[in-house]
């Protein structure tokens, strides 16, 4: 049973949770300003940006494409500066700028590929001792890399400098995206239990488990470090805002359908949710740590569910493609995915045109 928005706002207000204001499209000028056609075969997952180097890392099944963000306004193929290949079921990319190392999670091979961001050469391959490493995170406080393993309900912990597998953190359910506050706390959405966990990265244990009320299957996660706020995007078209200090619910923000990623822009005090099923990007303003305004639901493209934020310019980059016909289900593959139409893979660039 689905409540109306008015009923939800009333219920949240009575429960002591901050309410959310909604603004019309005229209040913001966000739109797709460019489409960078890359083509090629295979699916995709996370994106990441090396901010100092202005390089965009794009996952593509068995490889990672590396693009020059500064050259993105030109033809996209001319902005491809390199490829990290020979991978297997790429999910995510994590960057350790202080150690001059990059890390890729390989879901099919149950490994992490370590590369040199300067040359893009692979320097090490590490077994994670777990199944389906998906989200990957570098925690600068502990100088450790965490992979969040979708099929074994745990996190693998690696020494980022040596690549040594240090151990595992048992999790209460299937993990999704994770963030670090850089001060000794790592947070992760538990998709299968509608929960959020706090992990001690040094002790390698779960320090707290918090329920995400009114949130179904949380996926993407973002953090406002300065104000201790966590933003979980949920499959029931809600962004759950949580106090990172005590796990209390702060606000519930309406977003689009099929979200998979969230980002927070501290310079502009904005939160983003990329919604693959509705083909929208929800732009939310953090008026204060307890008050949020939906500025706009930007029309992007169906399938544009993962994204990266360029801190310098405030631009958002999203991966998207067109799909063919979905195959008939079989006993071996009860939920088959449709194939990607050849040549349709594209990086969308979204910006606030009113800010320029």
Alpha carbon gyration radius: 19 Å
Q: Number of DSSP strands? A: 29
Percent strand: over 45%
Q: Widest sheet: strand order?
A: 1-26-25-24-23
Shape: globular
Structural class: mainly beta
- Which residues sit in consecutive blocks of at least 5 with pLDDT less than 50? 1-17
Could you please describe the fold and organization of this structure?
The chain has 356 residues and is an all-beta fold. The protein is built from 1 helix and 29 strands. The strands form 7 sheets. A 5-stranded mixed beta sheet has the order 1-26-25-24-23, with no helix packed on it. The protein starts with a helix and ends with a strand. Residues 1-17 have low confidence and may be disordered.
Question: What labels describe this entry?
Answer:
five-stranded mixed sheet, 356 residues, mainly beta, four-stranded antiparallel sheet, disordered N terminus
Helix and strand topology:
Layout: H1 5-14, E1 20-22, E2 30-37, E3 47-50, E4 55-60, E5 63-68, E6 80-85, E7 90-96, E8 101-106, E9 111-115, E10 122-127, E11 133-139, E12 144-149, E13 154-159, E14 165-170, E15 175-180, E16 186-190, E17 195-200, E18 205-211, E19 221-224, E20 229-234, E21 238-243, E22 249-254, E23 259-265, E24 270-275, E25 280-288, E26 291-299, E27 306-309, E28 316-320, E29 346-352
């Amino acid at each position: 049973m689905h409540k109306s928005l008015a009923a939800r706002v009333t219920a949240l207000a009575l429960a002591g949770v901050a309410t959310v204001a909604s603004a019309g499209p005229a209040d913001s000028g966000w739109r797709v300003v460019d489409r960078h056609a890359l083509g090629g075969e295979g699916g995709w997952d996370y994106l990441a940006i090396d901010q100092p180097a202005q390089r965009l890392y794009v996952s593509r099944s068995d490889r990672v494409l590396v693009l020059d963000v500064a050259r993105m306004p030109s033809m996209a193929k001319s902005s491809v500066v390199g490829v990290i290949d020979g991978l297997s079921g790429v999910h995510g990319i994590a960057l350790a700028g202080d150690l001059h190392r990059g890390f890729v999670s390989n879901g099919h091979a149950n490994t992490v590929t370590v590369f040199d961001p300067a040359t893009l050469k692979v320097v090490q391959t590490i077994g994670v001792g777990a199944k389906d490493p998906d989200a990957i995170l570098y925690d600068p406080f502990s100088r450790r890399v965490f992979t969040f393993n979708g099929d074994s309900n745990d996190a693998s912990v690696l020494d980022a400098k040596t690549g040594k597998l240090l151990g595992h953190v048992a999790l209460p359910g299937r993990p999704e995206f994770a963030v670090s506050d850089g001060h000794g706390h790592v947070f992760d959405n538990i998709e299968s239990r509608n929960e959020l966990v706090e992990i001690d990265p040094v002790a390698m244990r779960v320090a707290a488990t918090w329920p995400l009320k009114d949130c179904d299957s949380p996926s993407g996660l973002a953090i406002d470090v300065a104000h201790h706020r966590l933003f979980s995007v949920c499959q029931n078209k809600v962004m759950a805002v949580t106090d990172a200090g005590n796990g209390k619910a702060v606000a519930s923000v309406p977003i689009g359908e099929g979200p998979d990623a969230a980002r927070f822009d501290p310079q502009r005090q904005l939160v983003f949710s990329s919604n693959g099923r509705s083909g929208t990007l929800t732009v939310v303003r953090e008026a204060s740590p307890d008050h949020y305004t939906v500025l706009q639901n930007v029309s992007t493209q169906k399938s544009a569910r993962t994204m990266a934020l360029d801190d310098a310019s405030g631009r958002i980059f999203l991966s998207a493609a067109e799909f063919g016909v979905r195959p008939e289900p079989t006993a071996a593959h009860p939920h088959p995915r449709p194939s990607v139409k050849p040549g349709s893979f594209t990086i969308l660039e979204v910006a606030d045109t009113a800010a320029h």
